[in-house]
Design goal:
The chain is α+β, with helices and mostly antiparallel strands. 42% of the residues lie in helices and 21% in strands. The chain has three domains: 91 residues, Up-down Bundle (Methane Monooxygenase Hydroxylase, Chain G, domain 1); 147 residues, 2-Layer Sandwich (Alpha-Beta Plaits), CATH 3.30.70; 76 residues, Double Stranded RNA Binding Domain (2-Layer Sandwich), CATH 3.30.160. 27% of the residues are buried.
């Protein structure tokens, strides 16, 4: 189905709405997913129809301006034209977000790399950056698990980012992020390089089957750490689940009850196992096609240089930004969009082919 095809959108909405009137719909597992898809498609359709109506009105104003000299009307025409151009540009982004799970929520995990306090501080800076980005884009963020360090920074943190197309926007952030700066923890004020890795996974619909056998799980309970409510830190409510065949470990300690923490941890485990399966499948395809990719700690996707000069460079799309502080404050849109365009078109930021 094409993103900008109103008739296809209407047909799909009608198909989904027919499902909602079936007697057992509201007790089915996919009721939430169907309603969400209807909402997304209706939003697309409304934007298309609104743009079409606005275009007709602008054409009428343009014809009128050819006959009369009205400064006020002329000012209105350019103001509305500019607003419409921005609206269309924003909507065109949906063409880049056509992956199967792009429209859904995301789970992000940030791990500090080798480098001690500098890398832990860098992990916390990245955490703050994505929180600011989510806030500016009206996404809801929920803390799932955090492992702070007593001296500085965080060793790891897992969050869910909820909102339309959260996963689509953030999927390209997965990988190793490299920071070069004068270390605030070095009394000699020497330049240090720090690394942090980021995992991004889709929050899977209930209809997606991921086989998890109970006998493959090792479940541990422990007392929640850090800030919490009246009872959060007084009982062994935190959950750590180890999936023994894969070695994947997930934790949740932010909910009030052990049951809720377990449910959240299982959701994260499903997403991690699913992402692992996709990654292995892609590796097999790359091997068959003869494509060799380095997936290692040193293969950073993006570098953030604070000293001796200021520059952020995405090593995949070629996008470079000199205003480092703005990016660290959450202004990630240019980096995110350049990567999505690169993946869709195969062209680097400078226009050359990959």
């Amino acid at each position: 189905m094409k993103v900008f095809d109103p008739s296809a959108l209407k047909t799909r909405i009608d198909e989904l709405q027919k499902l909602t009137v079936e007697p057992d719909f509201w007790t089915s597992d996919n009721a939430h997913e169907v309603n969400r898809e209807i909402s997304l498609l209706q939003s697309r359709l409304d934007k298309i129809e609104s743009s079409q109506n606005e275009l007709l009105e602008l054409e009428a104003i343009a014809e009128l301006l050819c006959e009369v000299d009205d400064p006020e009307l002329n000012s209105e025409f350019y103001a509305r034209s500019s607003a419409m151009a921005k609206s269309i540009k924003a909507y065109q982004i949906l063409v880049l977000l056509d992956g199967e799970y792009d429209s859904g929520d995301a789970i992000m995990t940030i791990h500090a790399g080798a480098g001690g306090l500098d890398s832990q501080d860098w992990a916390e800076m990245l955490y703050r950056m994505y929180m600011r980005w989510a806030e500016s884009n009206k996404f809801t963020v929920k803390l799932i698990d955090e492992l702070p360090d007593q001296e500085a920074g965080i060793k790891s943190v897992t969050i869910s980012i909820n909102g339309d197309y959260a996963y689509g926007y953030l999927k390209g952030e997965q990988g190793v992020h490299r920071l070069v700066r004068i270390s605030p923890f070095d009394s000699a004020k020497r330049r240090h390089t720090s690394f942090a890795s980021i995992e991004v996974m889709p929050v899977l619909p209930d209809s997606v089957e991921v086989e998890i056998r109970p006998e493959d799980l090792k479940v541990d309970t422990f007392r929640s750490s850090g800030a919490g409510g009246q009872y959060v830190n007084m009982t062994d409510s935190a959950i750590r689940i180890t999936h023994m065949p894969s070695g994947i470990v997930v934790s949740c300690q932010t909910e009030r009850s052990q049951h809720m923490n377990r449910a959240t941890a299982m959701q994260v485990l499903r997403s991690k196992l699913f992402e692992k399966t996709l990654r292995e499948r892609q590796a097999q395809l790359d091997n068959i096609q003869g494509e060799k990719r380095t997936v290692a700690w040193g293969s950073q996707i993006r570098s953030y240089t604070l000293q001796p000069f200021q520059l952020i460079k995405d090593h995949r799309s070629g996008c470079e930004i000199g205003n480092v502080q703005a990016v660290l404050d959450g202004d990630l849109d240019e980096l995110i969009m350049s990567y999505l365009r690169y993946m869709k078109t195969g062209k680097l930021q400078n226009g050359s082919d990959r």
